Amino acid sequence: MRATEDLYELSNSLHEQGVKREDIALNVLGYTIDDQGVVRNRFNNIIGSKDKYSYQKFQITLSGKCIVIFSHRLQAFKKYGYKLYEKGIMVRHKDDVKSNNTVNNILIGTAKDNYDDRGKEAISISQKKATEASKKYSNELVKEIKQFYRNNNNPQTLTMNKYNISNSSTLWYIINKR
Is pLDDT at 10 greater than 90 in this prediction? Predict the structure, then answer.
């Protein structure tokens, strides 16, 4: 039992000195990650779960606090060491599959590298979603506004008031360009 207490005392001390959580998990607490991205604790039990974004993770306790360690970061630390923590560097999934933590799929690079990994199709889809989300007037509402405008013989003020449109330029754009 004392060996376990010594292990946790050492890990807490290292954590308080600024040693990175991935380093402590791998090199002090005996956690492992294999080439397929499977994480095991020091008793060789497979551990971990997924977060709401599908990233694999597990938790350890350091200095009395529950600390989350992401499997992709553990794999990157095992592969690249402290280069992982250099300024501007992040962990990348080569295939953009967040749950694929195989050693060949995990890379490090810049935010631009990470963005480029996604591929043109995935980037285009997310850009379209962002554009739609930022539109104040949905396509359905635009149809409704146009119909109301036409059915009431083009009463600009009536349409603007009903749909809370702030100015005539915006109404003109909705009617003529959308």
Answer: yes
